[in-house]
Amino acid sequence: MSNEMQEEISPTTPAETVAPSTSSQQDDGVPRTDAEERDPYHVRLEGDEDPKSKTKVTKWMAVIIICSAATCVTCTSSVASFTQRPMQEQWHVSSPVTILGISLFVEGLGLGPLLLGPLSEFYGRNFVYWSSFSLFVVLNLPVALAPNIVVYLVFRFLTGVSGAAFLSVAGGSVSDLFANEEVLLPMAIYSVSPMIGPVLGPAVSGFINQDTHWRWTYWVIVIWAGVELALLVFLVPETYVPTLETRKARKLRKSTGDEKYYSTLERSDKGLMHTIALSCLRPFEIMWYEPMALLLDIWAALLLGILYLTFEAFPTRVFGRDRGFNTQMSGLSFVGIGIGMVVAIASQPYWIKVYKEDRIPYWERKMRAERQKCMEEGEKGDKSATRKREPEPEARLLIGMVGAVLVTFGLFWFAFTTPHAIHWVVPMLATVPFGLGVIYAFISIWTFLVHAYRPYAASAMAGNSLTRCAFAAAFPLISTPMYARLGVVGATGLLAGLSALMMPLP
């Protein structure tokens, strides 16, 4: 990587923010020259036109709808866990073939952001939401009506690609709506929503498949996604500042007849294909040149892989027919993970106070004192010292330290309490700290990547998403042979050991 790029992706953002704002030239992704700032024909948003000036009701309504749509997409990935057995009987295929329904969908979720992210930079957030989610609804119809396994698998992959907008664009919408000092809580809620979906999926699928045909699982998804699409169209405003400026410039040209009005985006020399190419290349470049980003991506991938592996292990190996569980009860076995995730959300106000107040470790207080000293030196004119001595954003890894311990503890607890001689409540309780730790770990990883690799945070997150989804797609496929050879205790103990090896990372 060139020295220029090394400098640009170095940590330059205070640790008090979670996601990029869109109020400055660097934040909205379109640089503005000094001439543009002085040009009276250069259109900018003013006052109430700024998305951050919208009412709290509008902001939170948008956040809730975006989060519920993200949950819908990721829930679709795991609803296939209880449709596999009836599909095997109907189409006379093996278990590994039907497991591909989960793997291909998740792989689509990993590849989709590479395309959908750049599209939002040119056409706005809502264009990507409306077009991709419309495809998501339409492409789920062939899944529900599939006459054979080939059609089913092909369209499962395509629905994953079309639903990926909520892993690549939605975070930008949340940061568009809130100022830096307000964005912590809504961003934390959004960060958790894609993780709640996979846990909710088996419960939904279990209740549907207990007494109805497996196709109804996907009809329910079509109905749910259709409702979400209507809410997105009618209740979620456009939030991308360059797109709003372009719309304003067009209105001014039309109302005044003066063609001199323009927006920054209209004068940008970036091309769509060039941006897509960069979007595909830069995540790998960051992982290649930044070992910390690569290691955190691997850690996140392992955690998500373990989570998706449970969709195969729980119903068949742990909480299945051997314990007398029917389909509905097996689906509810994921409740413990969900409870842990809800607790993680509920505890976010505490962690926000930890970062904002003095209830932080000594090393972090020392970093903040150094930051203050750097700022004072910067005010005196020594800006180079300010940049060089800017503290790293590792403070965000504090919650990840707690998460790493909780995940490992939960997995070891679960591994050694799965024998049938032990009541099923005990291993189910072990999934609570696992779910809590997974969310803490992901919040830590995502916020670190956003801070450390700005203005290439989107590329860093795309690389993380691609790595995570690659592992999550593979793990369900290895679950059956791994649990068959090692047993429940041995296989889960192996996963716990791998998690323990990752504990030093944060």
Automatic annotation (TrEMBL):
Major facilitator superfamily (MFS) profile domain span: 62-506
Keyword tRNA-binding: no
Region (Disordered): 1-50
Chief location: membrane
Listed Gene3D superfamilies: MFS general substrate transporter like domains
Topology term for the membrane: Multi-pass membrane protein
Presence of keyword Transmembrane helix: yes
Entry's localization field: Membrane
GO (cellular component) term, any one: plasma membrane
GO molecular function annotation: transmembrane transporter activity
Keywords of the record: Membrane, Transmembrane, Transmembrane helix
Ranges annotated as biased composition (Polar residues): 1-27
Residues spanning the membrane: 60-82, 94-115, 127-145, 151-171, 183-204, 216-241, 292-311, 331-352, 397-416, 422-449, 456-478, 484-505
Entries under InterPro entries matching the protein: MFS, MFS_dom, MFS_trans_sf
Bias (Basic and acidic residues): 29-50
Stored Pfam families: MFS_1
Protein name: Major facilitator superfamily (MFS) profile domain-containing protein
Organism: Tulasnella calospora MUT 4182
